[in-house]
């Protein structure tokens, strides 16, 4: 702070109240094929109903045969929490349905809203027709868009009853000398794929304008392309209808423009929408949207029914690249469904093929049978969405450094039966390999009965609760440590860092996450060589709390009249 040139008192504030921030621990991540929704764009989903609304035909329609595994993996996770980041992945042949019905019409792929805004909003290519489905896939072929953009033929329009009067000239356009800018647009579910009822009206846009600069009374844009872009769940507006008639005026500013009217009331059925599930490579590309922790905050990675190849890519290119989240994986369906007697061998063979030893990976023992209420059938679904969900549940009822397994916090929801219910002998085999058994106990439900990570060497990090504890500590303290960047590396800054971290760790200790700790940040580790290299070192020693995996109960029979205090030192008197 600079002093004034003449005498006076200057007041300033120095904020020494910086604390270690809380960090998010319950955000899930998933990428996979869905029949509808934005492609290669991270979308926040809060419930299974929300998932169905965004990534299937509608909230009551649900997944198709190609998407139900991923859909219910996500849905199962969301039964424990409400924060899932989802990316839709499709193959290279996936197309949006368009209004161009001519033979050999150019195919169109618009992955998401950002792509449309930068590449298609201004249109004027005259190759896709006036409208396109909002998202790629065959579902778009169920859409029809009808337009009335003529002041004289409204009364004969099939959909006139859905609007109050004929389109004419808006007050805005009239005020600047223009004319005939208004139009009505209606969107229909022709084949009933979105609503279950053919011909259902999905959306309508009354009195929207052909003028680029048209605004409503509240100042919002009334340009028809912008209205549809901002509000529609089903379509985009591309080039103007009857292109040769309308292209010269539609999309101009309203001032002194007499906008061309359509010759007839036009109706456009969208066609050529194509589904493409894609490959492991295309899904891996979608997964890579999660690989930068500075831009995307996720903690629990669900892999659904991913192949071993894709599991390996997700683990190496996303989870290990980030170093701040856990991957949850399940064995292939063939390992546990209709594989009587060979399940344990198949699972260990799968792990051998996967070839990964890491404390950032959690493996479970199989798949569960559950009801698909959308299609009225039963489905086999991998358990990794549930296991990740149990971590969310643990954070809710306890703390992230508690184990998600066992009868207190490890009960799995929505299980009709397990594909394989491993016995004690097989549980020993699985646990030795780092696989967490999921077991159904009569009268007690289906329970996660292990809390190991896939780290093969003996270590504190071979337990889920310890790995999650350190993820939280590292993330929170590293965020707090950012405020030491560019400060002078001297005793003051070092002491400030210790005083910042110590109360946080003491709080974690009080919440049973660690048993002891020590923070070292002084001249012993910030030597002159370290300081001269513009570096700053803080060493944080942690003794993590351990979960109980093995309980030994010894029942000893003794003779009548024996004094228990003399039998075993410190044993209390018998209850009477």
Structural descriptors:
seven-stranded mixed β-sheet, 18% strand, 26% helix, 3 domains, alpha/beta, 576 residues, Rossmann fold, 16 helices
Task: Please characterize this protein's 3D structure.
There is one protein chain. The protein has helices at residues 48-55, 68-78, 113-119, 171-175, 224-231, 243-246, 280-287, 308-322, 333-336, 343-354, 384-397, 424-432, 464-481, 491-510, 528-532, 564-567; strands spanning 28-32, 43-45, 84-88, 96-98, 131-136, 143-148, 182-189, 200-209, 235-237, 266-269, 300-302, 326-329, 361-364, 367-372, 377-382, 417-418, 435-436, 438-441, 445-448, 514-520, 539-544. It has 576 residues and is an alpha/beta fold. Strand 11, helix 8 and strand 12 form a beta-alpha-beta unit. The N and C termini lie far apart (76 Å).
